[in-house]
Amino acid sequence: MALWAPAQNLSVVFSANGSEARMRGMWRRRDSVVVRTASSEVSSSGGGEMAAYEEGQLERPNWAGETPLSRLVGAIISFKPLYSVLKLGARQVLISTAEKTNIPWREMTNEILESDVYKEMESIENPSVVYPDYYSNPFHAYDEGNLSWLAAAEAEAATMSMVRRATPDASSLEEANKIVRGNWLQAIERHHLQYSGNSTVRDILDVGCSVGVSTRFLADKFPSAKVTGLDLSPYFLAVAQFKEKERASRKNLINWVHANGEDSGLPSKSFDIVSMAYVLHECPARAIVGLVREAFRLLRPGGTIALTDNSPKSKVLQELSPVLFTLMKSTEPFLDEYYLTDLEGRMREAGFVNVTTVLTDKRHRTVTGTVPL
């Protein structure tokens, strides 16, 4: 098999709105998927700084998968009294990161909890949805996982905190988003332009949309497209719908759907882009396979799948301190399954071609593929 990876001088330069890029560099042969190790900079009009995206020496962190260190961490987490402490610690890391970078976590949370968001539930919730067994697991230090108002109220602040942690050198949240979100959107656009056979983007589906942060970025990037956000949590969707109503009206309103992304019930061949942003690390391997297969069914010929999530080859993630990776694993029950999954291989098995992997920031990769024309 042949894999293409770039030499160290490959770089990507984005304009302030993330809509244009120049690539330069030399490529060396490695295997069957394109991996771009990039430097990225926001143009001077965006006020950004150079950020190098560097691969580590391993295929995945040694604290993930079937390694002695991973088993040790698993044993620590399985001790319930200690797990409770770790869970609270992980939550505090997120809140502390947010507050240190001027993200008003508590204020944002209270604003949602004290609002009329609860009225959105009736129009959002699909009573016929059957939750898969894995979805009842505690996630992100919430005993109810994603099925609670507190998780939904804190989701946007947590997302902002994640973006800041991914770009510690960024001077502001705006600059961090230009890197993390801008590079992700650019990877989608570039792939679709290159492989779709028809660059028109009419319909976009954001699977695992949470409270709609990624969905709104997609809608802003492709303003002429009809965008649908789909999630298993009606609490998240209620917040997404509530927050979208507070914003200025769009040309095309975002449609919110309460459904299982593995069996959405949506029509086949009805989307040009299916995106999943920071979803797969929360899923067992069988669900990852199901989500990829369902995306293939939903996409039109020439359609693009875009999966962005933690990169197993991220140098930053491979070099996390023991405290941080133990805290992270304590709130992510399926993290090992994600890191052990050959995502590109599962995509090819589902039928996708032109599978491409790009490191879009220091921590995250975006994997794209095409439904054959």
Can you walk me through this structure?
It is built from 13 helices and 14 strands. The protein has a single domain (4-370), classed as Rossmann fold. Residues 1-51 have low confidence and may be disordered. The protein has 373 residues and is of the alpha/beta class. It has helices spanning 68-78, 80-100, 105-113, 121-124, 149-166, 173-195, 213-221, 234-246, 285-298, 315-318, 322-331, 335-340, 343-350, and strands spanning 4-6, 11-14, 21-24, 27-29, 34-36, 39-42, 51-52, 203-207, 226-231, 255-258, 271-277, 299-310, 353-359, 364-370. GO terms for molecular function: methyltransferase activity; S-adenosylmethionine-dependent methyltransferase activity. It holds the Pfam family Methyltransf_11. This is Methyltransferase type 11 domain-containing protein. Residues 205-306 form the Methyltransferase type domain. It comes from Vitis vinifera (Grape).
Mind sketching the topology for me?
Blueprint: E1 4-6, E2 11-14, E3 21-24, E4 27-29, E5 34-36, E6 39-42, E7 51-52, H1 68-78, H2 80-100, H3 105-113, H4 121-124, H5 149-166, H6 173-195, E8 203-207, H7 213-221, E9 226-231, H8 234-246, E10 255-258, E11 271-277, H9 285-298, E12 299-310, H10 315-318, H11 322-331, H12 335-340, H13 343-350, E13 353-359, E14 364-370
Parallel strand pairs: 2-6, 5-13, 8-9, 8-11, 9-10, 11-12
Antiparallel strand pairs: 1-4, 2-3, 6-7, 12-14, 13-14
Helix pairs in contact: 2-5, 2-11, 3-5, 5-6, 5-8, 9-13
